[in-house]
Design brief:
By secondary structure, the protein is of the alpha/beta class. The chain has 9 helices and 24 strands. It has 2 domains: about 200 residues, 3-Layer(bba) Sandwich (FAD/NAD(P)-binding domain); about 130 residues, FAD/NAD(P)-binding domain (3-Layer(bba) Sandwich). It is about 25% helix and about 25% strand. Helix 1 crosses helix 9. It is globular, with a radius of gyration of 22 Å.
Length: about 400
């Protein structure tokens, strides 16, 4: 039997470890149930931290923990899925294209930045969506110091006033000060189509976010979108033109394109609709998890968000349940009743809320300590020690924060 997992992000990593855990509990040898993880590299990109400087350091190796738990790693890119024949075509660097058969499949392909057809977006904007994107932005920012001083050189526009946009924008004043020195006046401007910043955060946390932006000198342009971008400016939908040599696009994400090859229902974000055990509805043998899945996560009808907080726990359930089906075990319904947010606000600290109503529990330096622990400890892979790694993926024990 073979369980194939596509994707080595938070959901894919924990799906593999959780399946290996159940296999271990049942006393099966690796050759009796092969667990194969398919990804371009055996590396976890710590995507929630890519707004920070030195993005090239924000990865964690996976090969040792996969070896310790007898998970087969296939280096390559999944190009196509045939759910009728139960096979995946993988493009590898050394063996060309390979067709891999599966008995169960877990789609953990994550998400991609939503890039609409805005003139100049593809050519002149940056992002923190992928490791490569974040490294490109970091190099660009460092190169600005060699340019003649100008308003455009000293201005950064962040398109999108949601979670990612706010974290990128509030980190930017200190990054620019490191590049230009303390005596250069710089501007950071968030552009948000909605009439308020942080549209999804609600009225409770918003005044605290607005206060942090004021302390940092971050400006906002609300009720307007980006209409065009070029090398030295941004034009807004209301006609305003902002001189800026740096534009960071942070205006939403969508499920990775590979999910479109699974013949299941999808939502407006491209996520596959799954049942409570994370099976893709109407597609036998296929599970979806993380940003690839639209899943109900509690009895109140709340759905998992496209975040590592939900992906980590969803991955553990998906891997366990896919292996359980193969082993004739009862699946465990996915549940994630607790929900928190921890928003980094740069030198203004952070903001920690709990619950879907986002009740504020910690602010400022106290919340910053929590954010730093999340970013440097909680979201990293377990140590490559078999017992500890398998225990970390118990779906009933994976932290609910």
């Amino acid at each position: 039997m073979r369980l194939v997992i596509i994707g080595a992000g938070f959901a894919g990593m924990y799906a593999a470890l959780s399946a290996a855990r159940l296999r271990d509990i049942r006393g099966l040898a690796p050759e009796e149930l092969e667990i194969m993880l398919v990804a371009p590299e055996p590396t976890l990109v710590v995507r929630p931290r890519l707004y920070e400087p030195k993005p090239e350091t924000l990865t964690a190796p996976l090969l040792d923990v996969l070896k310790a738990t007898d998970v087969t790693f296939l280096r390559g890119t999944a190009e196509s899925i045939d759910t009728t024949c139960r096979s995946v075509v993988v493009a590898t660097s050394h063996e060309g294209r390979k067709s891999i058969s599966y008995d169960r499949l877990v789609v953990a392909t994550g998400s991609r930045l939503f890039r609409p057809n805005v003139p100049g977006l593809a050519e002149d904007a940056f992002s923190v969506d992928s490791l490569e994107d974040a490294i490109s932005l970091d190099r660009h920012l460092k190169s600005l110091s060699s340019r003649p001083a100008s308003e455009a050189r000293n201005t950064v526009v962040v398109a999108g006033g949601g979670f990612t946009g706010i974290e990128a924008a509030t980190e930017m004043p200190s990054r620019l000060r490191e590049i230009f020195g303390k005596d250069v006046n710089t501007r950071v401007i968030i552009v948000e189509r909605n009439p308020a910043i942080a549209p999804d955060m609600g009225a409770g946390p918003r005044p605290l976010i607005e206060d942090a932006l004021r302390k940092l000198g971050v400006e906002t342009r609300l009720g307007a979108g980006v209409a065009a971008i070029d090398e030295t400016s941004v034009t807004l939908s209301n006609g305003e033109r902002i001189e800026a040599a740096t534009v960071i696009w942070a205006a939403g994400i969508r499920a990775a394109p590979l999910t479109a090859q699974v013949p299941g229902e999808r939502d407006n974000f491209g996520r596959l609709v799954v049942d409570r055990e994370l099976r893709v509805v109407g597609v036998p043998g296929v599970f979806a998890t993380g940003d690839a899945a639209k899943a109900v996560c509690d009895d109140d009808g709340n759905h998992a968000l496209m975040s590592c907080q939900h992906a980590t726990r969803m991955g553990a359930f998906a891997g366990n349940n896919a292996a359980a089906e193969l082993l004739g075990e009862a699946p465990t319904p996915y549940h994630q009743k607790a929900y928190v947010t921890c928003l980094d606000l740069g030198e203004a600290g952070a903001l920690f809320t709990r619950g879907w109503d986002r009740n504020v529990e910690h602010v400022g330096a106290d919340a910053k300590k929590i954010k730093q622990e999340i970013n440097t400890v909680w979201i990293y892979p377990p140590k490559p020690v078999r017992a500890a790694a398998l225990a970390s993926a118990d779906p009933q024990r994976v932290t609910d924060l």
